[in-house]
Amino acid sequence: MDVAKSRTSTSFVEFVVIISMMMALTALSIDGMLPALPEIGSDLGVVNPNDRQLIIVVMLFGQAIGQLLFGPLSDMIGRKPAIFAGYGLFIVGTVASIVSMNFPMMLLGRVMQGIGTAAPRAITLAIVRDRFERERMARVMSFAMAIFILVPMVAPSLGQVLLSVAGWRSIFGFFLVFAVSTVTWFALRIPETLAVENRKPLTLGRFRQSIVEIIRIRPALGYTLTAGLTYGILIAYLNSSQQILQEQYGLGDTFPLYFAAVSLSIGLAALVNARLVMRFGMTTLVRWALASIVVLSTVFLTVSVASSGQPPLWTLMAFLMLTFFCIGILFGNLNTLAMSPLGHMAGVGAAVIGAATTFFSMLLGAVIGGAYNGTVLPLVIGIVVLSVSASLMARWSSAR
Predict the structure, then answer these.
(1) Of 194, 299, 351, 371, which is most buried by a Cβ count within 10 Å?
(2) Residue 332 class from Cβ within 10 Å (0-12 exposed, 13-18 middle, 19+ buried)?
């Protein structure tokens, strides 16, 4: 039931847009940086080109840690105060990145940004879970994802423009403006969704008990691991996309356009999922999407091996767009399936699931991205392995 509707004039559409923009903070902070990675690396003395990927990886590491803090914190003090604390930390980290004069300082700022984005990453899911259940929750998440995906579509182009006009530090300046604007909108228009009588003290024992409970619930554990494997594909792509598209294929300043095309496929999938989920159900769609990725990646691996890791650009783009269309189907459904049994512990549940998913996918994506060798083979092999593993895990998760 929509428990907060009676306490606010916020419409369904405005609620979805605000949630989407908060979810988009992480994507903006990652995708907006991609065109600037070579210049940042050059200015801050990075020698190995693959080390530039750390600008992405350490932020995700910070986010994994932060979710373990902000989810339980939101159960204790309420959703909104915890959101404000996270945004404050993100702003401090953004300022540190703007003024950084060496690579370690940049990475420190990015870790702080990651910890800060953990608040909207974990707590927005809890806010949606506070208000909606199962298919209705999946529908909200699908609409939110469709709007949210507009940010990854335009972020690299925006980063490219800012980079050309005012240098890479101006990109962080935009992050600062976006964060302040979004949290202000949230503060003014979204009410607190966790009633005082439903708040719980933050204790180590309760946190440990919650983790044990999640591990014992097969759907919660299984779909969390499935999400981690699936998101590992996304992180691997994000880590290596700039090197593959901008450098290996020589796309230069047109890289953001190709990146946007892949992002568009995820957004379209989210819209399609919002319609299909009410008809076929989440479990069926998850199985179909994962099976499709397994087939696509296996076929494209054959093409890639036959071309010595340098397949024609149009085949690569077709593969990426179809694969990430399937991943767009998976996003909202996997989170919802993992969270559905945890309504009685939405805050800490969102924290544990979000942290586990982020940490798992970060490690997998870092390994695959770090293996980049001037060909698409490490990425494609990684997608085959992760999609097969995710498909098997999803079947285990839904087994009775």
Answers:
(1) 351
(2) buried
